[in-house]
Specification:
The protein has 228 residues and is mainly β. Helices cover 2% and strands 33% of the residues. It contains one helix and eleven strands; from the N terminus they run E-E-E-E-E-E-E-E-E-E-H-E.
């Protein structure tokens, strides 16, 4: 079978010489959905930015988990690395029993010491794929992409989201051969993270139930995703 993927991060100088290159990733995940042949999933980088202090930040999609044996977790996801929102990809149990299928990760890579000083996952209950990462003048991080989830973290109260419902989640036009009948397609997401905050208090999931998505489905109350 074709193996799963990992991130790679590579630096060249202006003359084209290779200065630094590394893999970043875990053991991936084997998705078993009989009678479909096993599908091997991995980790993939989708965005990279350098902040005003020359720190390297990356985002991508992760399937590697801490609670899949004998798999290897994503580096830095054992709870020992500082993470402001959710720093472990195996502590939550959602639609697939062992966490969502694919999760957004945002992390800092110290290419001098080969360490990950900061890492956070931003998980829904099903599948998310980030497509771009940006950093503002205050080093706040912005990640955008697509989500199949109806319980993707959204903000309420003083930081109420522009749209609180994934309007495509229940329209029955999604990849039902993998996720089951009635699974919808994707909406975009936009998430802001403040890596200087130890608890990412700017992600505020307070508020009442989220209205049901178009096409059906019970109303969802946002989960209180917290750092373990």
């Amino acid at each position: 079978a074709v193996g799963a993927s990992n991130f790679f991060v590579t630096e060249f100088n202006s003359g084209g010489s290779l200065l630094y290159s590394t893999y970043v990733g875990g053991g991936g995940l084997v998705l078993e959905i009989p009678p479909v042949p096993d599908i091997e999933l991995g980790d993939a980088g989708t965005g990279i930015r350098i902040d005003s202090d020359n720190n390297v930040w990356l985002t991508g999609a992760v399937t590697s988990r801490t609670n899949v044996i004998p798999g290897l977790p994503f580096p830095g996801s054992d709870g020992s690395t500082d993470g402001c929102f959710q720093d472990n990809n195996g502590t939550f149990s959602t639609g697939f029993g062992q966490g969502p299928l694919v999760t957004v990760v945002v992390f800092e890579l110290d290419t001098g010491n080969n360490t990950i000083p900061f890492l956070t996952f931003v998980p829904g209950e099903m599948l998310e794929v980030p497509t771009a990462l940006a950093i503002d003048g205050s080093n706040n991080l912005y990640v955008t992409g697509m989500t199949y989830s109806t319980e993707f973290p959204i903000t309420f109260s003083s930081h109420e989201a522009a749209q609180t419902v994934n309007n495509a989640a229940g329209n029955g036009k999604g990849p039902s051969f993998i996720f089951g009948p009635g699974t919808g397609t994707t909406n975009a997401f936009l998430t802001e993270l403040n890596p200087a905050s130890s608890d990412c208090s700017n992600i505020d999931l307070l508020g009442g139930p989220v209205p049901a998505a178009a096409g059906g489905g019970a109303p969802q109350t946002p989960s209180a995703w917290t750092r373990p």
